[in-house]
Structure formats: C-alpha cells, structure tokens
Design a protein that fits this description.
This protein is mainly α and 263 residues long. Helix content is 49%, strand content 12%. The protein has helices spanning 4-7, 14-30, 39-49, 72-75, 97-106, 109-112, 127-135, 150-159, 174-181, 192-198, 210-222, 224-238, 243-258, and strands spanning 34-36, 56-58, 84-88, 115-119, 142-146, 163-165, 186-189, 203-205.
Length: 263
C-alpha cells in the first residue's frame, strides 16, 4: 500500500481513503510481515504507522514487459504527434498535472512545435484541470488518449522526447521502468520512491518547482547528447529490476516464516 493519503490526503479518492483508514492500521498490526515494493515505502510505513523495522521487507518489483514491435512507431505514426512529451498514468491530483501543464506552457511549445501526450485512466478529481484545458490557448497541443493497447503504448514511449513523471508521491512508479525499457529518457521527482527507482538514470526535479520542471523539459528537448546518455543509463538501470529477483526475494521471506525463523 502507498501511504500517500498521509502526506497528500486530497489526492486519494474518498472510497479508497476510507478503506485505507479503516483497514490499513489494523492490517499492519496483525501482519507477521509486510512486503513493501520500495525502501521508500518501507520507511514511510515505519515512520507513519510506527511499524517495527523487523516486520518490513522491501522487495523491488520487476520491470513491466511491453510488446516490442520493430514497426511499432511506424504502425502508429499517423496517430502520434511528430514531437511530444509523454505522461503515462491516471489523471489524479497526485500526478501533478497542473504543474506539468504550467511547465509545458512556459516552454513555449508553439515555437518548438512540441506536443504533450497524456496516456492512462481517467482518474478522479480532475474536472477543474479538464475545464481549464478545454479553454486553454494550447489545447490543440495537448492530447489525452486514455487507456491504449500495449503495442500503442510501446510506440508512444519509443517516439517520445521523454517521459514526464513528476508525481507528488508514488509507492513505486512503474512508468519509469517502462520508459527506460523502451529507451525513453525520463524526468521524474526527487521524492518518495521515484528517485529510488530511477537512480542516476533520469533527470530528478522538485515536483513542486514548476520552473525546474520546465528547465528539465527544455534540456531534454534541445540536448540530443543528454537524451542519448539517459537512454543508455536507462537500459542499464532497468536490468536491475527483474521479476525473477522479486519472486526469489519474496519466496525467501515466506520461507523464513514457514520455517519459524521469525517470530
């Protein structure tokens, strides 16, 4: 579980918030062990719920497996802008869309003829953002695709200038690994699990600093060598996240309890 509601309660849908507040603490107290998908989340659990460190076991997830088509970009070329920044995720407040849009506006995308492509679920509490976007002078430079087939998502990653993922909070941040596995440079936040997952293979920014986000977007738009360097670092970074390692570490924890090594 993320503990996002502890830090940004306004960014979680009310039903989810109620369920977590009713069940989270009780579940944590009763659990013999808690497997967290990042050290960041493990630390949050310990500090926010006063969980003993011996009960919490961080186990990284593996990288998502996206279908790889040699002609993916070509196949969907007519459906994609010629040059664009990509965001992948739901339109939830914690995804920081208002600042993404402000940074994109500051970038003067008309002059660079660059677009913003948003892929993912509808989310919640986004009515205000969508209303602003519908009247925005740059609305023709922003596309919201919703959920897309996996091979189309691959094409989006492969053609994008970079992934822009400055969330306020994440328990892990799978789009970071998706992008890296497709050779896509990444801009993400220097907080919570995102900096842990990205390591030094991405540009890290303060998610509440719109100007810093705009500057990072500008750098990647203009600097071909930086894009190449991050692409290569991303390919190396993503190799560290495998489902085999995730399964082996999880099984090791289960066996510890099955054999009575932990009380």
């Amino acid at each position: 579980h993320d503990v996002v509601h502890r830090f940004y309660p306004e960014t979680m849908a009310l039903p989810n918030l109620l369920v977590e507040r009713l069940l989270m603490k009780r579940s944590i107290q009763r659990a013999d062990a808690i497997i967290a998908d990042t050290y960041s989340t493990a630390g949050d659990l310990q500090s926010e719920f006063e969980v003993e460190s011996r009960k919490v076991f961080p186990v990284h997830l593996g990288k998502p497996e996206l279908p790889r088509r040699k002609d993916a970009e070509k196949a969907f070329n007519d459906e994609l802008p010629s040059k664009f920044f990509l965001f992948v995720g739901t339109l939830d407040p914690r995804k920081n869309f208002n600042r993404i849009m402000k940074a994109f506006t500051l970038l003067n995308p008309v002059a660079s003829d660059v677009h913003l492509l948003i892929v993912g679920g509808a989310g919640w509490k986004n009515k205000g953002f969508l209303e602003v976007l519908s009247e925005h002078p740059l609305r023709s430079y922003v596309s919201i695709k919703g959920y897309v087939p996996a091979d189309f998502l691959t094409a989006c990653y492969e053609k994008a200038v970079c992934l822009v993922f400055p969330s306020l909070y994440e328990g892990f941040g799978l789009p970071i690994l998706e992008a890296m596995s497709c050779g896509t440079p990444v801009i993400t936040s220097n907080v919570s699990a995102m900096k842990e997952v990205a390591g030094d293979a991405a540009l890290l920014v303060n998610p509440q600093d719109t100007k810093a986000l705009k500057a990072a977007m500008k750098r990647l738009l203009e600097d071909k060598r930086l894009r190449k360097r991050l692409r290569e670092k991303g390919w190396q970074r993503v190799k560290e996240f495998t489902w085999r390692r995730c399964a082996e570490e999880t099984l090791k924890i289960l066996n510890m309890f099955d054999r009575g090594y932990v009380s």
